[in-house]
Amino acid sequence: MARAGQGRDLVQKAFRRLAPGEPGEIAVLLGGVGVLLSVLVFTLLAAQVLDGDTQSFDAHILRSLRRADDPSMPIGPVWLRARALEVTALGSSTVLGLATLAICGFLVLQRMTRTAAFVFVATVGGWVLNAVMKEIFQRTRPAVVPHLQAVMSLSFPSGHAMTSAAVYLTLGALTMRVADRRVTKLYCIATAMIVTLLVGLTRIYLGVHYPTDVVAGWLVGLMWALACWTVERGIEHRAGLRREQRESGRS
After folding, report:
1. CA 158 remoteness from chain centre
2. Which long-range contacts (CB under 8 A, 24 or more apart) does 65-68 make?
């Protein structure tokens, strides 16, 4: 009877190792699927932009956000322009850089060095990726309406939309792991998504980006955040398996 019980235990352990039902494995799998879908949608959008198929749509949206008698004046109340400039600053390299350094410093002080490195790489990697993609596509800034903010770089994809997605979604995922309650986890990721959405929308409202620039930025930022998160979860999952193996070896 004892041998039969040991045999059943061995079979059950073998099936648990083979089954892809462990939370860590499922998270990594879903993250990989999300990255692939983001790449696919971005590729389709970029092809349309390069062919000029989105130009009339982009121009129509930008013109619809300005007064018909004066394209230099945005629609809406007077205070909306000032609020848009304030919100769009949340996606600037200065704000994101300071926030990243502050958070990484906190994580290092908490002896969470690996997590700090994860946040730092996600942020810096997002900036580098955006700069490379701008040089690849070489799309100039919109000339349909006057810009309401000074800009100097190329247009596609939107750097504010991309880096805010990469950084805020990464931080949202990080705070989700710290939170205990499900409603708190939803609050963390929802807040990150809302901030990312608002930053992208202000770029269109200010006339410094085409709508397709912003959508492309969101897609690439989401792809990068998911890729970093998937790698980090994969490393953590493997470390957990190795720890379990060492502990089972001792027993």
Report:
1. 13
2. 65/145, 65/204, 65/205, 65/207, 66/145, 66/207
Instruction: Tell whether 11 is covered by a domain.
Output: no
- Identify the domain containing residue 84 by its residue range: 33-68+76-236
The CB-based long-range contact list for 87-92 (8 Å cut-off, 24+ gap) reads: 87/198, 87/199, 87/202, 88/149, 88/160, 88/199, 88/202, 88/203, 88/206, 90/164, 90/195, 90/198, 90/199, 91/159, 91/160, 91/161, 91/163, 91/164, 91/199, 91/200, 91/203, 92/160
Tens-level pLDDT at each residue, the chain (251 residues): 555 555 555 444 443 443 444 455 565 566 667 778 888 999 999 999 999 999 999 999 999 999 999 999 999 998 999 999 999 999 999 999 999 999 999 989 988 888 888 889 888 988 999 999 999 999 999 999 999 998 888 999 999 999 999 899 888 888 887 788 889 989 988 999 999 999 999 999 999 999 999 999 999 998 898 888 777 777 765 655 455 445 555 55
- Report how many domains make up the chain: 1
| Domain assignment of residue 249, yes or no | no
CA nearest to 230, candidates 43, 41, 26: 26
Distance, CA of 59 to CA of 56 (rounded, Å): 5
Whether residue 195 lies inside any domain: the answer is: yes
- The answer to the question of residue 14 being in a domain is no
